[in-house]
Amino acid sequence: MHSEFELITRFFTPDPPGAEAGVTLGVGDDCTLLAPTPGQRLAVSVDTSVAGIHFPEDAPAVAVGHRALAVSLSDLAAMGARARWCLMSLTLPAADDDAWLADFARGFHALCDATDTALVGGDVTRGELAIGVTVMGEVPPAQALTRSGARPGDLVAVTGALGGGAGGLALWQRGERDTGHPLLQRYLHPLPRLEAGLALRGLASAAIDISDGLLADLGHLLEASGVGAELTPDTLPLAEGLVTALGEEGARQAGLHGGDDYELLLGLPPDHLDEARARLAALGLALTVIGRFSDRSGVQGVTVTGDRGWQHFSGGVAP
User: Fold this and answer.
1) How confident is the model at residue 78 (pLDDT cuts 50, 70, 90)?
2) Backbone phi, then psi, for 283, in 5-degree steps?
3) Which structural domains are found in the chain, ordered by start?
4) Nearest Cα to 190, choosing from 13, 51, 319, 45?
5) Where along this sequence does the record place binding of Mg(2+) 2 (predicted)?
6) Which residues are part of a known binding site for substrate?
Protein backbone atom coordinates (compact mmCIF):
# COMPACT_ATOMS: atom_id res chain seq x y z
CA MET A 1 0.00 0.00 0.00
CA HIS A 2 1.30 3.43 -0.95
CA SER A 3 1.85 6.19 1.57
CA GLU A 4 0.29 9.60 0.94
CA PHE A 5 3.59 11.01 -0.26
CA GLU A 6 4.28 8.06 -2.55
CA LEU A 7 0.87 8.54 -4.15
CA ILE A 8 1.47 12.24 -4.69
CA THR A 9 4.93 11.68 -6.13
CA ARG A 10 3.89 8.83 -8.42
CA PHE A 11 0.59 10.10 -9.78
CA PHE A 12 0.25 13.84 -9.18
CA THR A 13 3.64 15.56 -9.26
CA PRO A 14 4.66 17.33 -12.50
CA ASP A 15 8.15 16.81 -13.83
CA PRO A 16 9.88 19.01 -12.88
CA PRO A 17 7.64 20.35 -10.06
CA GLY A 18 6.89 24.06 -10.26
CA ALA A 19 7.78 24.36 -13.95
CA GLU A 20 4.31 25.70 -14.87
CA ALA A 21 3.82 29.38 -15.69
CA GLY A 22 3.23 31.51 -12.63
CA VAL A 23 4.32 28.80 -10.16
CA THR A 24 7.31 29.80 -8.06
CA LEU A 25 6.98 26.83 -5.69
CA GLY A 26 4.87 23.83 -6.63
CA VAL A 27 3.91 20.38 -5.38
CA GLY A 28 6.01 19.01 -2.53
CA ASP A 29 6.14 21.80 0.06
CA ASP A 30 3.69 22.95 2.74
CA CYS A 31 2.23 25.56 0.42
CA THR A 32 2.33 26.47 -3.24
CA LEU A 33 3.61 29.92 -4.18
CA LEU A 34 1.93 31.52 -7.18
CA ALA A 35 2.63 34.69 -9.13
CA PRO A 36 -0.65 35.95 -10.65
CA THR A 37 -0.43 38.18 -13.70
CA PRO A 38 -0.14 41.84 -12.59
CA GLY A 39 -3.37 43.75 -13.01
CA GLN A 40 -5.60 40.67 -13.18
CA ARG A 41 -8.30 39.66 -10.72
CA LEU A 42 -8.06 36.15 -9.28
CA ALA A 43 -11.21 34.03 -9.72
CA VAL A 44 -11.41 31.06 -7.32
CA SER A 45 -13.98 28.26 -7.03
CA VAL A 46 -14.22 24.83 -5.40
CA ASP A 47 -16.40 21.76 -6.04
CA THR A 48 -16.54 18.36 -4.39
CA SER A 49 -17.54 15.17 -6.22
CA VAL A 50 -18.65 12.19 -4.10
CA ALA A 51 -19.06 8.63 -5.40
CA GLY A 52 -22.69 7.58 -5.48
CA ILE A 53 -23.85 11.20 -5.21
CA HIS A 54 -22.23 13.10 -8.06
CA PHE A 55 -21.13 10.15 -10.21
CA PRO A 56 -21.88 6.41 -10.26
CA GLU A 57 -19.64 4.29 -8.07
CA ASP A 58 -18.80 2.11 -11.09
CA ALA A 59 -17.92 5.02 -13.39
CA PRO A 60 -14.59 4.59 -15.24
CA ALA A 61 -11.70 6.07 -13.28
CA VAL A 62 -10.55 8.14 -16.25
CA ALA A 63 -14.01 9.74 -16.40
CA VAL A 64 -14.02 10.38 -12.63
CA GLY A 65 -10.73 12.24 -12.95
CA HIS A 66 -11.93 14.27 -15.92
CA ARG A 67 -15.30 15.17 -14.35
CA ALA A 68 -13.79 16.19 -11.01
CA LEU A 69 -11.78 18.92 -12.72
CA ALA A 70 -14.37 19.79 -15.39
CA VAL A 71 -17.12 20.74 -12.95
CA SER A 72 -14.84 23.22 -11.19
CA LEU A 73 -13.45 24.68 -14.41
CA SER A 74 -17.03 25.26 -15.57
CA ASP A 75 -17.37 27.87 -12.80
CA LEU A 76 -14.38 29.75 -14.23
CA ALA A 77 -15.98 29.57 -17.67
CA ALA A 78 -19.14 31.18 -16.31
CA MET A 79 -17.05 34.06 -14.93
CA GLY A 80 -15.18 34.60 -18.19
CA ALA A 81 -11.94 33.72 -16.40
CA ARG A 82 -8.88 32.11 -17.96
CA ALA A 83 -7.93 28.92 -16.08
CA ARG A 84 -4.47 28.92 -14.48
CA TRP A 85 -4.07 26.59 -11.49
CA CYS A 86 -5.87 23.96 -9.44
CA LEU A 87 -5.60 22.12 -6.12
CA MET A 88 -7.02 18.65 -5.49
CA SER A 89 -8.07 16.88 -2.28
CA LEU A 90 -8.50 13.15 -2.93
CA THR A 91 -10.16 10.80 -0.44
CA LEU A 92 -9.64 7.12 -1.31
CA PRO A 93 -11.04 3.93 0.26
CA ALA A 94 -7.72 2.20 -0.47
CA ALA A 95 -4.32 3.25 -1.76
CA ASP A 96 -3.25 0.05 -3.49
CA ASP A 97 -5.29 0.08 -6.73
CA ASP A 98 -2.57 1.32 -9.05
CA ALA A 99 -4.62 0.72 -12.20
CA TRP A 100 -7.54 2.84 -10.92
CA LEU A 101 -5.23 5.60 -9.73
CA ALA A 102 -3.33 5.66 -13.02
CA ASP A 103 -6.55 5.98 -15.00
CA PHE A 104 -7.93 8.63 -12.64
CA ALA A 105 -4.72 10.64 -12.90
CA ARG A 106 -4.71 10.24 -16.69
CA GLY A 107 -8.21 11.70 -16.97
CA PHE A 108 -7.40 14.57 -14.61
CA HIS A 109 -4.07 15.46 -16.21
CA ALA A 110 -5.45 15.23 -19.75
CA LEU A 111 -8.00 17.95 -18.99
CA CYS A 112 -5.32 19.98 -17.19
CA ASP A 113 -3.24 19.84 -20.37
CA ALA A 114 -6.19 20.64 -22.65
CA THR A 115 -7.13 23.73 -20.62
CA ASP A 116 -3.64 24.95 -19.61
CA THR A 117 -4.47 24.36 -15.95
CA ALA A 118 -1.58 23.43 -13.67
CA LEU A 119 -2.08 21.11 -10.69
CA VAL A 120 -0.05 22.86 -8.01
CA GLY A 121 -0.91 21.06 -4.78
CA GLY A 122 -3.40 19.04 -2.81
CA ASP A 123 -3.97 16.33 -0.24
CA VAL A 124 -4.63 12.59 -0.14
CA THR A 125 -6.40 10.81 2.70
CA ARG A 126 -8.40 7.65 3.41
CA GLY A 127 -12.20 7.37 3.42
CA GLU A 128 -15.15 7.07 1.03
CA LEU A 129 -14.21 8.09 -2.52
CA ALA A 130 -14.50 11.87 -2.91
CA ILE A 131 -12.59 14.48 -4.88
CA GLY A 132 -12.45 18.17 -4.04
CA VAL A 133 -10.97 20.48 -6.67
CA THR A 134 -10.19 24.16 -6.20
CA VAL A 135 -9.56 26.10 -9.40
CA MET A 136 -7.99 29.51 -9.86
CA GLY A 137 -8.20 31.69 -12.93
CA GLU A 138 -7.61 35.25 -14.00
CA VAL A 139 -9.92 37.90 -15.42
CA PRO A 140 -9.29 41.59 -16.15
CA PRO A 141 -10.88 44.11 -13.77
CA ALA A 142 -14.54 44.88 -14.55
CA GLN A 143 -14.70 42.13 -17.20
CA ALA A 144 -15.89 39.22 -15.07
CA LEU A 145 -19.25 37.72 -16.05
CA THR A 146 -21.52 37.48 -13.02
CA ARG A 147 -25.04 36.31 -12.20
CA SER A 148 -26.23 39.78 -11.26
CA GLY A 149 -26.10 41.76 -14.52
CA ALA A 150 -29.22 40.66 -16.45
CA ARG A 151 -31.71 43.41 -17.21
CA PRO A 152 -35.30 43.39 -18.51
CA GLY A 153 -35.18 43.17 -22.32
CA ASP A 154 -31.95 41.16 -22.41
CA LEU A 155 -32.14 37.86 -24.24
CA VAL A 156 -31.94 34.52 -22.42
CA ALA A 157 -29.47 32.39 -24.37
CA VAL A 158 -27.60 29.10 -23.96
CA THR A 159 -24.48 27.66 -25.52
CA GLY A 160 -24.42 24.20 -27.07
CA ALA A 161 -27.17 21.68 -26.34
CA LEU A 162 -29.09 20.68 -23.23
CA GLY A 163 -30.12 17.43 -21.56
CA GLY A 164 -27.07 15.41 -22.56
CA GLY A 165 -25.87 14.93 -19.00
CA ALA A 166 -29.24 13.62 -17.82
CA GLY A 167 -29.56 11.46 -20.91
CA GLY A 168 -26.14 9.94 -20.41
CA LEU A 169 -26.84 9.16 -16.77
CA ALA A 170 -30.15 7.52 -17.74
CA LEU A 171 -28.35 5.30 -20.25
CA TRP A 172 -25.68 4.38 -17.68
CA GLN A 173 -28.36 3.43 -15.16
CA ARG A 174 -29.96 1.21 -17.81
CA GLY A 175 -26.70 -0.68 -18.17
CA GLU A 176 -25.31 1.02 -21.30
CA ARG A 177 -21.51 0.92 -21.18
CA ASP A 178 -20.51 2.07 -24.67
CA THR A 179 -18.56 5.13 -23.56
CA GLY A 180 -18.40 6.26 -27.18
CA HIS A 181 -22.14 6.96 -27.16
CA PRO A 182 -22.66 10.75 -27.56
CA LEU A 183 -24.86 11.01 -24.47
CA LEU A 184 -22.48 8.99 -22.32
CA GLN A 185 -19.66 11.18 -23.56
CA ARG A 186 -21.63 14.26 -22.48
CA TYR A 187 -22.18 12.77 -19.02
CA LEU A 188 -18.81 11.14 -18.36
CA HIS A 189 -16.58 13.70 -20.11
CA PRO A 190 -18.32 17.12 -19.94
CA LEU A 191 -16.44 20.00 -21.54
CA PRO A 192 -16.20 23.25 -19.57
CA ARG A 193 -16.90 26.18 -21.91
CA LEU A 194 -13.77 28.11 -21.02
CA GLU A 195 -13.12 29.54 -24.48
CA ALA A 196 -16.76 30.55 -24.79
CA GLY A 197 -16.57 32.41 -21.49
CA LEU A 198 -13.55 34.35 -22.72
CA ALA A 199 -15.27 35.13 -26.02
CA LEU A 200 -18.36 36.48 -24.27
CA ARG A 201 -16.50 39.07 -22.19
CA GLY A 202 -17.87 42.50 -23.00
CA LEU A 203 -20.99 41.02 -24.63
CA ALA A 204 -22.94 39.04 -22.04
CA SER A 205 -24.67 40.95 -19.26
CA ALA A 206 -24.83 37.89 -16.97
CA ALA A 207 -23.79 34.25 -16.96
CA ILE A 208 -24.03 31.02 -14.98
CA ASP A 209 -23.03 27.48 -15.85
CA ILE A 210 -25.78 24.87 -16.10
CA SER A 211 -24.77 22.31 -13.50
CA ASP A 212 -28.02 21.79 -11.56
CA GLY A 213 -30.42 22.06 -14.52
CA LEU A 214 -31.59 24.91 -16.76
CA LEU A 215 -34.54 26.06 -14.65
CA ALA A 216 -32.72 25.65 -11.34
CA ASP A 217 -29.71 27.65 -12.52
CA LEU A 218 -31.90 30.22 -14.26
CA GLY A 219 -33.58 30.72 -10.89
CA HIS A 220 -30.21 31.52 -9.32
CA LEU A 221 -29.48 34.06 -12.04
CA LEU A 222 -32.93 35.67 -11.75
CA GLU A 223 -32.55 36.03 -8.00
CA ALA A 224 -29.11 37.60 -8.30
CA SER A 225 -30.22 40.01 -11.05
CA GLY A 226 -33.62 40.85 -9.57
CA VAL A 227 -35.49 40.08 -12.80
CA GLY A 228 -37.85 37.47 -14.24
CA ALA A 229 -37.82 35.58 -17.53
CA GLU A 230 -40.19 34.60 -20.29
CA LEU A 231 -39.05 31.38 -21.96
CA THR A 232 -39.97 29.83 -25.29
CA PRO A 233 -39.39 26.14 -24.46
CA ASP A 234 -39.96 25.00 -28.05
CA THR A 235 -36.61 26.61 -28.90
CA LEU A 236 -34.59 24.54 -26.40
CA PRO A 237 -31.56 23.04 -28.16
CA LEU A 238 -31.60 19.37 -27.13
CA ALA A 239 -28.57 17.07 -27.24
CA GLU A 240 -28.16 14.71 -30.16
CA GLY A 241 -29.87 11.38 -29.53
CA LEU A 242 -31.79 12.61 -26.49
CA VAL A 243 -35.28 12.10 -27.95
CA THR A 244 -34.33 8.59 -29.08
CA ALA A 245 -33.05 7.76 -25.61
CA LEU A 246 -35.76 9.34 -23.47
CA GLY A 247 -38.74 10.03 -25.76
CA GLU A 248 -40.04 13.50 -26.58
CA GLU A 249 -41.39 14.39 -23.14
CA GLY A 250 -38.44 12.82 -21.33
CA ALA A 251 -36.06 14.77 -23.55
CA ARG A 252 -37.94 18.01 -22.86
CA GLN A 253 -37.80 17.42 -19.11
CA ALA A 254 -34.08 16.60 -19.33
CA GLY A 255 -33.50 19.86 -21.20
CA LEU A 256 -35.37 21.87 -18.59
CA HIS A 257 -34.35 20.10 -15.40
CA GLY A 258 -31.40 17.79 -16.11
CA GLY A 259 -28.10 18.70 -14.50
CA ASP A 260 -24.51 18.08 -15.58
CA ASP A 261 -24.75 19.92 -18.91
CA TYR A 262 -22.09 22.54 -18.08
CA GLU A 263 -23.26 24.82 -20.87
CA LEU A 264 -23.41 28.56 -20.24
CA LEU A 265 -26.73 30.29 -19.58
CA LEU A 266 -26.50 33.95 -20.51
CA GLY A 267 -28.09 37.33 -20.36
CA LEU A 268 -27.38 39.07 -23.66
CA PRO A 269 -28.41 42.56 -24.82
CA PRO A 270 -30.16 42.13 -28.20
CA ASP A 271 -27.65 44.31 -30.04
CA HIS A 272 -24.85 41.95 -28.94
CA LEU A 273 -26.47 38.80 -30.32
CA ASP A 274 -24.88 38.76 -33.79
CA GLU A 275 -21.38 39.38 -32.44
CA ALA A 276 -21.80 36.76 -29.73
CA ARG A 277 -22.97 34.18 -32.28
CA ALA A 278 -20.07 35.01 -34.57
CA ARG A 279 -17.49 34.63 -31.80
CA LEU A 280 -18.93 31.30 -30.64
CA ALA A 281 -19.30 30.03 -34.21
CA ALA A 282 -15.55 30.54 -34.58
CA LEU A 283 -15.21 28.07 -31.70
CA GLY A 284 -17.61 25.60 -33.34
CA LEU A 285 -20.28 26.32 -30.74
CA ALA A 286 -23.93 27.28 -31.25
CA LEU A 287 -25.75 29.98 -29.31
CA THR A 288 -29.53 29.66 -29.00
CA VAL A 289 -31.97 32.30 -27.75
CA ILE A 290 -34.60 30.64 -25.53
CA GLY A 291 -36.39 33.67 -24.12
CA ARG A 292 -36.11 37.17 -22.73
CA PHE A 293 -35.60 38.66 -19.29
CA SER A 294 -38.50 40.72 -17.96
CA ASP A 295 -39.56 42.80 -14.99
CA ARG A 296 -42.14 40.15 -13.99
CA SER A 297 -40.95 37.92 -11.18
CA GLY A 298 -40.38 34.22 -11.77
CA VAL A 299 -40.32 32.22 -14.99
CA GLN A 300 -43.10 32.52 -17.55
CA GLY A 301 -43.75 30.22 -20.51
CA VAL A 302 -43.10 26.84 -18.87
CA THR A 303 -45.02 24.76 -16.40
CA VAL A 304 -42.70 23.55 -13.66
CA THR A 305 -43.65 20.02 -12.61
CA GLY A 306 -41.81 17.25 -10.82
CA ASP A 307 -38.07 17.53 -10.26
CA ARG A 308 -36.88 21.14 -10.22
CA GLY A 309 -33.19 20.39 -10.67
CA TRP A 310 -30.37 18.85 -8.74
CA GLN A 311 -30.36 19.45 -4.98
CA HIS A 312 -27.19 18.51 -3.13
CA PHE A 313 -28.94 17.18 -0.03
CA SER A 314 -31.79 15.28 -1.71
CA GLY A 315 -29.87 12.03 -2.29
CA GLY A 316 -29.26 9.97 -5.42
CA VAL A 317 -26.82 10.39 -8.26
CA ALA A 318 -26.95 13.74 -10.06
CA PRO A 319 -28.84 14.88 -11.96
Assistant:
1) very high
2) -95, 0
3) 7-139 (3.30.1330.10), 155-300 (3.90.650.10)
4) 319
5) 47, 75
6) 54, 260, 310
